[in-house]
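Need fresh eyes. Consider my entry:
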Amino acid sequence: MALRLLSKTYWRGTQIRFRRPVDNVTGTPVAIDARDGARLHGVWWTPSRNPKPRVAVIAAHPRVDFSEHHTFPDLLDAGYGCLGANLRSLNNDADCLHEKLLVDLGAYMRWLKERGVEKIVLLGNSGGGSLFSFYQSQAKKPAAERLERMPDGRATLLDRTELIPGDGIVFMAAHAGQGRIINEVIDPAVVDETDPLRTDPELDMYDPANGFQPPPAWSRYAPDFVDRFRAAQLARVRRIDDRAHELIADAADAGQIRESDAFETLSPAARRDVQRREAFEPIMLVYRTMANLHYADNSLDPSPRGYGSLLSPRPDLMNFQRLGFARVVTPQGWLSTWSGLSSNADIAKTGPAVMEPAVVINAGRDLDVYPSTHSRLIYDSIRSADKQYWNFEDALHYFEPDEGEDGNPSLDALMAKLVPWLEERFPL
């Protein structure tokens, strides 16, 4: 029998969809242009009893389709409008630029306001949490004070884009940023980025000499190993950052040569070389990004989680597979989204700007988002006077049912709290 490396829970969970029939609602396709011309597609859901809602919930994710988010049925039953706002990087893990996604969100927010929506609640599920926190931090600044440049040096357009702040925010099983995820999962034992099988045994978390036990037995890592491991993870991220900047700088240097008077004095072969260097769009391969100590040691940031990762019950082997976080990226996408040292989409940076009513929802059995590392960090970072922390001990990352379980008890329990929370703060 073939060894199963991909998690069944992951594949069922990522099918973000209505999990029960919803009667008397209308789903209207939304097709709009962002400030820079990017075409965006979403779905605007409205209940028949309230076809022009004054209060709406918008859900978005950097790359996942949220047009039928699983919280929408209960929200629609309560009378709220729901916008599943898909962004330009849908299903694109390679060149996801968070600064551009803010431009997309600005277009959706304006679209809602143009249809009479007075209050908008931001639903930040999973990667949507750090995305919306980043958006809110920029939307609340005067245009002239917003970020001018992306980490790769290009203009953001945020100073020329209308960004309407949200009125409340829900962090649902949200991590603190995709870059922070990479800081935790990147394998520091990689010796050479071009030879991913070479390994430094002293930094290999899957080596029994460092405390690893055969799965599904839990491992125990010594504090000194944990410290060395985490420091080496950041060092590898920094090296990849440096490589990304080198690749970007080489193209920029070629562009300067082509625009200079000296370009015409070059030989035909040299001119071709300069043009190719300027046109070149490199792809970076980032191997072995399934090496979070939390996958194997549940004494680190304890929770009721099971063994392994959201992606796999065998991260020790999945670490060498093609599928994984940030495997194939452009230098620009790495710096904007996946680098925990360079990305602006980090709630530790953006959370202090969140002062609106907020709730942080922790899924106790989450396999990649942990209570202290992420959920409590989010709660402590935001500065809302009206903020709550909810822990659902039995919930998985997408609040999906266990395999073979009838109904959707964890999602039902969440919505039984979330709908009254909304109704109290954002009455229809």
In short: The mean pLDDT is 95. The first strand starts at residue 25 and ends at 33. Strands lie at 25-33, 39-47, 55-59, 81-85, 119-125, 168-172, 284-285, 328-329, 358-363, 387-392.
